[in-house]
């Protein structure tokens, strides 16, 4: 791994006034998944933050503050697979989540940006905070500095023993960057030293089995569950929708490995894409495969598109599924959610499949292998 501390030039902003207008007029407030470090204080890991960085637009009178400034000054440490990796100094790893859409109070995302490049990913908006374009979400990956040390400090207080901490809510903790930077494993090592934690991990990657040893140690003293996200069993379709994510069969095999090791694990059919992955036979096959893999639950939710995600997803849709483009524009241009009637229909379908295959809707305390089990909360706002 390269260790160069060379700083890249300031990132050029996305020259797209239409996106800016859309962002200004939307009233939807997404869940806050990341803390904005305060300016003018020493950064974690001993990496200093500069006192002032100019706006990437070139306006010398407009200083950039918070996470955008940190992103601009983060050193490039590696570049490959047409992806750039930066070390991002942060003061906190835990983020308080107050959104009514999600039931967990705390989140952890070891990385900002995700190399899997899922066409529909709702979390692209998080790169806008750093004055980056939505397409940079999979091209510029920021590794949070000293993740293990921050986790050890922030998870130690008794107040953190019990509340649900969700890892991987915005970016995948087992994306390719993890193989080289190990931020997720460092966090799990800190978790293994604590007792009474209540943790869930969501990923599209079979790399999670690498950490079965740590997950088993955590489960001896805390509650932990793993959600493997599988949107379709069709490997070719999955490659079009999720270009760099592991194949669906590898994800389901990871569920089997986790269950064989005694780790609570289930499947997230998230998101369900209208007209693409929502056919009754396809969802039935997915539920059956989840059960065969040993999954304990099946949760699902319909596609949610923020304006920044729509900017990437619509051109993809027009190229790959042109007959669906008009419907998606009608449904998602003015609202991030699909119509309520459609969402209710999918919810009923998923409930029927759970009953048919004996799957739960969420991890429960009785399903967890844990010495000190706090009450397990609902994982997500799901069908």
Notes on the structure:
With 383 residues, the chain is of the alpha/beta class. It has one domain (20-367): pyruvate-formate lyase- activating enzyme, CATH 3.80.30. The protein is built from 13 helices and 13 strands. The chain has helices at 17-25, 66-73, 125-128, 147-155, 177-181, 183-191, 212-221, 235-241, 248-260, 280-293, 307-320, 325-332, 340-357; strands at 53-54, 63-64, 76-80, 83-88, 94-96, 106-108, 111-112, 140-144, 164-167, 198-203, 223-229, 264-272, 298-302. β12, α10 and β13 (298-302) form a beta-alpha-beta unit.
Summarize the structure.
It is built from 13 helices and 13 strands.
Index terms:
383 residues; pyruvate-formate lyase- activating enzyme; 7-stranded mixed sheet; disordered N terminus
Coarse morphology: globular
> Numbering strands along the chain, what is their spatial order in the largest sheet?
5-6-9-10-11-12-13
Rg over CA atoms, rounded to whole Å, is: 20 Å
Low-confidence stretches: 1-65, 67-73, 369-381
SSE layout:
Blueprint: H1 17-25, E1 53-54, E2 63-64, H2 66-73, E3 76-80, E4 83-88, E5 94-96, E6 106-108, E7 111-112, H3 125-128, E8 140-144, H4 147-155, E9 164-167, H5 177-181, H6 183-191, E10 198-203, H7 212-221, E11 223-229, H8 235-241, H9 248-260, E12 264-272, H10 280-293, E13 298-302, H11 307-320, H12 325-332, H13 340-357
Parallel strand pairs: 4-8, 6-9, 9-10, 10-11, 11-12, 12-13
Antiparallel strand pairs: 1-2, 3-4, 5-6, 7-8
Helix pairs in contact: 4-6, 10-13, 11-12
